[in-house]
Amino acid sequence: MAEYLASIFGTEKDKVNCSFYFKIGACRHGDKCSRIHNRPTFSQTILLQNLYQNPKMDIHRAEAALFCCQFGRDVIGRPSTGALGDLWWVMVGVTDSHEQQHFDEFFEEIFDEVEDKYGEIEEMNVCDNIGEHMIGNVYIKFKREEDAERAVKDLNTRWFGGMPIYAELSPVTDFREACCRQYEMGDCGKGGFCNFMHLKPISRELRRRLYGRRKRAGFSSFDRFPERRRSRSRGRERDRRSRY
């Protein structure tokens, strides 16, 4: 019996532990989930919740997107694909190249700051999902567990871009299991509301630069405000939601 329970732990057959939290480190039901979220006491991976603010998307548009996408249109009613979709973003002043530049700058700043301060990074990923529990989530996998633990403790006292950082250890260690296979093949029927990771890619040039250990110095959005002291009570979730 013990062997059977161990074999199904964290899978859909496990009726006690949440398979989504085990694989993704996030669950759309949150604290209301009927299954247990086993939060790790040690891990190589940390989660920085909702840290990336996509210029094309915010939490209010995400609510509208679920309805709009059913009619072949994206957020705020623009065409979801093709030349019309590209033209729409040009008209409002946000192009794919602008978005990629914005994302690359964000990614590089976080990567450099975290690796320089806490330790070597094996892998860093940012979710392109738009569900509230996944939007803008940043996952950082360190080479050493002790670096991840130190990063969580310190980052929870810091700010980025004018907002407090919410960091926690994550059970995710294999991002291949956490990612949406259909999205990687270019055909996820659930779109941005999928509960598996849709990872936002960085440019190839930036990937070569970062993982080739070439660093840059420059302006940092970290610590633009003094260290914070916050309760880790249930009120934390309400406070986080109020920031959108």
UniProtKB/TrEMBL annotation:
Q: Name one GO biological process term.
A: mRNA splicing, via spliceosome
Pfam families per the UniProt record, alphabetical: RRM_1, zf-CCCH
In terms of superkingdom, the source organism counts as Eukaryota
Annotated keywords: DNA-binding, Metal-binding, mRNA processing, mRNA splicing, Nucleus, Repeat, RNA-binding, Zinc, Zinc-finger
**Secreted found in the keyword field:** no
**SUPFAM superfamilies, per database record:** RNA-binding domain, RBD (SSF54928)
Q: Where are the zinc fingers (C3H1-type)?
A: 12-40, 174-201
Q: Where is the C3H1-type domain?
A: 12-40, 174-201
* GO MF, one annotated term: zinc ion binding
Q: What is this protein called?
A: Splicing factor U2af 38 kDa subunit
